[in-house]
């Protein structure tokens, strides 16, 4: 029976959740969830000067918005420092690590001399094989005994086999002279103790794998499966940075992109399943595999993101979309939809969601239900309410007073009215849009009539005909 899959996302809480980190979390989440496995979260908070509770919360909030739920409590790497030190001391006791008493000045002098002589500047400590009886009573670090000959092969599911000559690896420090563990040790110990079977992370960590493997092998632990994914680049092919636009997940949330669209887009950013562009979470979990990840950096494309987000809004269940709309308002500090507006918005959603790519666009299209009488037309639509148009609206209102308020009936009356006045309905639509929504770009006039109902629709037409608003 195969071992259950355990993946992890391990961000450093030194700022917001970066879009690249969000994609790494998503890949780990999809891989675990699609195989009935476990997805863990570890906060790598060992840099005490830069790690903040606010940044940790921003990461948790970003993951929650994206819907990437983790199993169990988030683990603090800093809180496990004693365990990391214990492993370093175990390796020391087993002769697989050693005490190094070299000072920073001595190490620098060694490197300067090596550089001058054209040798490798990789530090080789004279304490590696020193007799313990010669150890001074002085501060020391604990270094691992790196292999000196041969090579280390990282078997990577994305990059293929990556070979590093062992003479390129130094005797890495495990424990500093103040007794604190280094990051490389902490990561390897945590991954082992958490039972991580698959390490899926950015390819900027590829070289770290060789160093972390030394610890695994020295401890006799089974290696995880490695998958180092290419970084995300901007549209210009350069590493994604602030000049390309938003970098933090919370910025995309504030811009009103739906979480499902964001998940879909990030999944496609560097991974593919045939030619499929639009897919559901269930499909992504079923399809996602490491073999579908490309070796080249993916380019972030706002147009593709918007296109996918539009498709997800259109495909959303109305009640779920309304719930996410309310969440968007709360996240951006806007007033929530009141009980008087919620049923109207829900009724309008089927007519709004077809062409909206973000929540601000959806809200803009919903102006006709969100605004109260008297409707004040914007500058563009006000031009459709001249005295002639007002007279026409007044006459049409009287024709709509006694009609059965069903779309076919209302449409038939309006079309007949236009024909009787020897005009195309399009000529009538402009004043109707201005009267009902105060805008020139709106859902269909008849959709608005049906959502607003007879009483409200006729009241708005009467207001516009009389010049109110």
UniProtKB/TrEMBL annotation:
Q: What species does this protein belong to?
A: Roseovarius faecimaris
What's a GO cellular component annotated to this UniProt protein?
Answer: cytosol
Any GO molecular function:
glutamate-tRNA ligase activity
| Taxon lineage | Bacteria, Pseudomonadati, Pseudomonadota, Alphaproteobacteria, Rhodobacterales
The free-text function statement in the UniProt record for this protein reads:
Catalyzes the attachment of glutamate to tRNA(Glu) in a two-step reaction: glutamate is first activated by ATP to form Glu-AMP and then transferred to the acceptor end of tRNA(Glu).
Checking PANTHER family in the record gives: GLUTAMATE--TRNA LIGASE (PTHR43311), GLUTAMATE--TRNA LIGASE, MITOCHONDRIAL-RELATED (PTHR43311:SF2)
Name used for this protein in its record: Glutamate--tRNA ligase
Instruction: Kindly state which reaction or reactions the protein catalyses.
Output: tRNA(Glu) + L-glutamate + ATP = L-glutamyl-tRNA(Glu) + AMP + diphosphate
Task: Tell me the compartments it is located in.
Answer: Cytoplasm
């Amino acid at each position: 029976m195969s071992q259950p899959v355990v993946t992890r996302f391990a961000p450093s809480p030194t700022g917001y959740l970066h879009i690249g980190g969000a994609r790494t979390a998503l890949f780990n989440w999809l891989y675990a969830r699609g195989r009935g496995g476990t997805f863990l979260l570890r906060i790598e908070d060992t840099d005490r000067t830069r790690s903040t509770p606010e940044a940790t919360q921003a990461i948790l909030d970003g993951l929650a918005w994206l819907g990437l739920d983790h199993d169990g409590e988030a683990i603090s790497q800093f809180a496990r420092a004693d365990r990391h030190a214990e492993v370093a001391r175990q390796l020391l006791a087993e002769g697989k690590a050693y005490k190094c008493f070299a000072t920073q000045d001595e190490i620098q002098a060694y490197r300067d001399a090596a550089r001058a002589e054209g040798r490798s500047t990789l530090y080789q400590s004279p304490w590696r094989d020193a007799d313990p009886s010669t150890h001074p009573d002085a501060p020391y670090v604990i270094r691992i005994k790196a292999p000196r000959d041969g090579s280390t092969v990282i078997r990577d599911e994305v990059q293929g086999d990556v070979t590093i000559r062992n003479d390129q690896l130094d005797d890495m420090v495990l424990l500093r002279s103040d007794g604190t563990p280094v990051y490389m040790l902490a990561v390897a110990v945590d991954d082992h103790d958490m039972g991580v079977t698959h390490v899926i992370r950015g390819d900027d960590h590829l070289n770290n794998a060789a160093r972390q493997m030394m610890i695994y092998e020295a401890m006799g632990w089974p290696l995880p499966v490695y998958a180092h994914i290419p970084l995300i680049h901007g549209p210009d092919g350069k590493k994604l940075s602030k000049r390309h636009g938003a970098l933090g997940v919370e910025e995309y949330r504030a811009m009103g992109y739906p979480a499902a669209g964001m998940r879909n887009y990030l999944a496609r950013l560097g991974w593919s399943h045939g030619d499929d562009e639009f897919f559901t979470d269930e499909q992504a979990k079923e399809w996602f595999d490491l073999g579908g990840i490309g070796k080249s950096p993916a380019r972030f494309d706002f147009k593709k993101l918007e296109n996918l987000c539009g498709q997800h809004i259109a495909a959303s269940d109305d009640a779920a979309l309304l719930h996410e709309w309310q969440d968007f308002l709360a996240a951006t500090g806007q007033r929530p939809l009141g009980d008087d507006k919620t049923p109207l918005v829900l009724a309008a959603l089927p007519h709004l969601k077809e062409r909206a790519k973000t929540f601000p666009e959806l809200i803009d299209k919903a102006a006709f239900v969100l605004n109260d009488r008297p409707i004040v037309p914007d500058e563009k639509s006000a031009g459709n309410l001249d005295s002639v148009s007002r007279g026409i609206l007044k006459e049409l209102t009287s024709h709509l007073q006694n009609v059965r308020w069903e779309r076919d009936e209302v449409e038939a009356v309006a079309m007949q009215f236009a024909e009787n006045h020897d005009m195309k309905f399009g000529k009538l639509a402009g004043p109707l849009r201005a009267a009902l929504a105060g805008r020139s770009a709106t859902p269909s006039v008849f959709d608005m009539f049906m959502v607003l109902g007879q009483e409200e629709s006729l009241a708005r037409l009467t207001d516009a005909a009389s010049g109110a608003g």
